[in-house]
Amino acid sequence: MTLNFYVDGVSILRERLAPLPEDAPGRAVVRPAFSAKHAGCTGRSATRVRRGWLWGLSACLAGLAACAPALGLAQQSVPAQSPASQLVLSTPTAAPTAVQTNEPEQPSTGNIFPHKPGASHSYWDNLEGHLAIEVGVTGNPWTQTGRNFAQFYADRANTVTMNQIIGSLSHPVENIGGGYGIGFTFETLYGSDGRFDPTLGMGSGSLNGMYQWVPTQAHIDAKFPWIFKNGIDVQVGQLYGLLGTEGTPATARPFYTFSYAADYILPFEMLGVVVTAHLSDRMDWILGVDAGNSTSFGRYGNNNKPKGYFGFAWNHLLDGKLDMHIIGHFGPQGNNGIAVKSPDGLWTSAGAGAIANSKMQYNADFLATYRINKAMSVTVDGSYLHDDLLRDDAYGVATFFAYDLNPSLTLNARGEIFRDNTGGTITQFASTTSFTRSISNKPYPYYSAPPTTYGELTVGVSYRPDFINRHLDFGQLTIRPEIRLDKSLNGTRPFNKAAVPSAANGYAPVVTDGTNNMLWFNCDAIWAF
Questions:
Q1: Where is the composition biased (Polar residues) (predicted)?
Q2: Contact 377, 11 (CB under 8 A)
């Protein structure tokens, strides 16, 4: 199984486990992150808002065009990232897949060290470097805060944002003799998405503004011909979380915005070891141990207890039409430090003391993708979280539909229902450092909602304009406009307003006087090679 996928939604969901052709439109390879920019204009008249949003879209495209030429040479239609990052939008076979032979290979797009005809094959011939830039804008005429509630990466309304510049250096797992193989991936991200994708102790907090730098992947991948006929795969280091279907890199998901589950209950980053045992040609067993969600060790950990993954993946069932997985992540995730108050006394850190060492968090994810035909696919993703420390359950189901209308245009749709039983999970982080501070046992500003059942419907397209791409010397441009409606299905009103602790609300920043729905219009542009 090669975990590569296209930039467009349908191919992401349809070709998750098949190698991409050389000319595939922008292969990708990783999982989580991205949002919108500093506070924006919230014009009061419809005309002002409409013009502001159109200006933002134009600026989005213009900004991307301005950045692209300065970023170096590469061939057209190349993968946007590394081979191991594919974990998120594919079935969670977190480990390297097939071992390559030592036979000379055809040059592949994106390979920074192409094999010279007639020369003997070297391991380093397959070294690859990739780069992608994403610029986006969200249009929400009705917000009174400049924010889109219940969003991480697309939280800034009516503002153009450079979500990410993401680059990788990688080598696929390659045979080194005796059935053994080795590869690696190193990847880093800079942009507004970095606010929500840190790994504590790995550059976290090095930048504190709207645009932040984070390493997103740094792992060694190995193949061992042990125990099972197809062997076992091992990954060691920093990896993306294994649950869900929407990845951090822009090229690893069909939409600019994320589902509730992808933002709030599926782990983003992990530091640890993942083993994939190939029980058969169609079934994999996934095991892992890690330091926690976006945490590492020592003072950068959350507690002294291990966490881990356990699950199974089934590939190419029903004549190759069906892929699915069921994976869980288990362990204490609370911070065992002492709670700390901010100087003004309004905000408190998430420290819970020693009790955090025994309070478990359970994540589970079931994902199934069925390819109806060569152009259409349907994916169902069910997610569940139980947190002993928060005494909260959060769960939901999202369905994705993708249809390749033609080689340049893909129609994508997503529908989701998500329940937060106590209101303790869906939290809007109010500052550029709130998320990092929240997992670092530091006071952080936020606001939240009452217990709410959320509904969300998103429709969009992935457009790869041939009239532009055929003239590019390197890389490919993809534009993804979308329209999205979020709604409270149980009568709460959490959208388009904010809250701060005060005597009037019992010092609990819970939004109760907003709107019960949020209609917004979004677009991003991606240049990737």
A1: 89-111
A2: no
